[in-house]
UniProtKB/TrEMBL annotation:
InterPro entries reported in the protein's UniProt record: SusD-like_N (IPR033985), SusD_RagB_dom (IPR012944), TPR-like_helical_dom_sf (IPR011990)
Domain SusD-like N-terminal: 26-222
Keyword field: Cell outer membrane, Membrane, Signal
Species, as recorded: Spirosoma endbachense
Gene Ontology CC entries for this record: cell outer membrane
Membrane spanning residue stretches: none
Name assigned to this protein: RagB/SusD family nutrient uptake outer membrane protein
Amino acid sequence: MKKILNYILLSTICTGLWGLSSCSSFLEENNKNTVTADVFYKTTEGIESLVNSCYAPTRIWYGKTVGYLLTEAGTDEMQFGNTANGSYPYFDYNSNLQATEGGLIFVWKSFYRGINTCNTAIARIKNSPLPANLKAIREGEVRFLRAFYYYHLVETFGAIPLRTQETTEPEITALRAPVDEVYKLIFSDLETALTTIKGVVTPQGGRITEPAVAAFLARLYLTRDKNTEALAMADRVIKSYDFKLTENYKALWDIANSSGSTNKEVIWFVNYSENNTLNDYGRYDDLGYYWLWEGGHHGHLMFIPYFNGLKGWQYDLESGRSLLQYMPSKYLIDLYDETKDARWAGSFRTVWWANDPTTLPAGMKLGDTIAVVSKRAVTDTYRKSKPYTIYDANDVYQANGVPVIPRWRYAGLWKFADPSRSAKDVVNSKRDAFVFRLSEMYMIAAEASMKLGNTGSAADYVNVVRKRAALPGKSDQMIVKATDMTLDFMLDERAREFVGEQLRWFDLKRTGKLIERLAKYNLDAAPNVKSYHLMRPIPRVEIDVLQNKTEFVQNPGYN
């Protein structure tokens, strides 16, 4: 009897009887402990359960602690928001960023687990009892997901083991496939998926659709400098499907619009539930890190300040529970012209209100403004004229842009707030994690056009995004010209549009700007970052078990 425990580089991989239960609209878990995988997967119920389980690892990255650490930390737009001076290794690339770091191990194991599940499904779908048309769709979904996991692994770790067959026994040797070879498989899988899922365009609770595949291809073509293909695929998503930009940028992020199934700007999303039992909580306890990484969407915890000691204020459901993980860099807040760009107020919160009757200062009522964070410096006269506390740019940042300690009080990235949680200390949020949005397709088309020498067309694409971002009556002031189209402008505009959306580290790596921009805008990280940080260390536990360690070498710069 074949066991339902498989292995990849001696890491235990459960391949099928753990469905993605939180997608309750279409993903149902149905464990059959008394049957073998071979028997179960030959049933309609079994193969659907197997395909559903291929989705599960998406939830360890998007909207989660480890995903934020590998995409937002250590960039030009975010710095460590606590009393420590950027001491966490992901933020400032210090010497603790090594192969024993738990988050890297968790990502490696989780995504290879997902890949092995996908390999199992691809091998079994063709002999399943599903109708022919549904077989094609399910295989397309699974190939998309395999490409999705390989993309995150290859961009994070560089050359990696390439597995296309179900692994059922421990392997004690492994080789790292070149990046180009990994991408060859990624593109092959996505091109197959684009054909087999053709015609499936309606959101289905987080399932892969044809436009999701096209959007992913557009992002990856840009990543690999295939600009003609990136432009064509981004245009396809813009023109061929029924997506539209949300008219009001702030409304895009309202918790009422947080379902990817109904938000018309969202092309594909990782879904979550307000019921934490439907969010895979405890799913990865065999990897040892579930208590840090699982549950619902965690973005609402990561980016907001904490006004410790401020009389008349306490954190509550409305103001959010802060983990003080990230604060915006001075570079980031200076990017926004709040007099014309709605994305400043649509992304950040700068005003807090009195909510603690037990410490309320004399003369102040509940609901009165109690604290304001100003992105600009204010005069002493202005400060004294107000009954509330002001934290201005000079209170938050030193002249060189390094945050002032303690790093507690700053403009809070509010895009992921969830005041609908049941209580102030509830960690999980029902907010879906938006992976591809329509505005990204415009920005991909713009960057690809610029690289192809058509700066006029590039400006046209950017201006669609900027007009949506304009405050009422300010559209003309938001228009940019062909001569504005530079790589640095594109990165600035992407920061304004996509801050916090787990794209930034990949953007800086893709454009070759990571080190340059950290030197200018993130002095926490600038002294430590080196060229080898464009790859993360391969988890040591994966190398230690191999017999061919001399062939499977660690990435340069890491122990």
